[in-house]
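tool_call: predict_structure(chain=1)
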Amino acid sequence: MNIITKAFITISLLATAANASAGHHRGDSFYARGKVIAATPIYQTVRVEHIHDDSCWRRVSHHHSSSGHYGGNEVAATVVGAVIGGTVGHVLFKKSDLKGVGTVAGAIIGGSVGNEIGHSNHSYRKSRHSHNHSGYHHASHRKVLHCSREYSSFEEISGYEVTYKYQGEIYHTRTRHHPGKKIKLRVTVDPV
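tool_result:
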């Protein structure tokens, strides 16, 4: 062996011996095995919904609506009737002491008549047009699927309550899987 090889081997052996004798520093960790004393299953209840194809049926659902054009026309007819009625009442009682009362009475009567005209116009158009034309009554039919549902539940293992022994001490933990006869541990060394 040449001198460089001998020096390299000596340095490697010294470094290994120094690491072995140095011990563990704060926060150092290593892996070890503990002996499993007991592993008790932890159960959870699982609820399952079952829908059978032969228990489903369709039902027709009816939905009626109007586009709102005529509802808006009823309001417009009421307002226009009130304005016209108020104007007529004001003109009729212009030379009387009841000029203000005539205006208010005319507005109320005109609004009532306008509302009635708008409402009857809306009802007439609604009965004439039951198809979906803009501003007319709309009827839709939907098929809705209904199914009877059954539920069942069962117990399944969700983990294990494990009791193990390490260096003469008893410890407890939970694991997802059965650990077997030995449990792998990560041991951390911290000085007190």
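agent: The helical segments are 3-22, 69-92, 99-128. Proceeding to next step.
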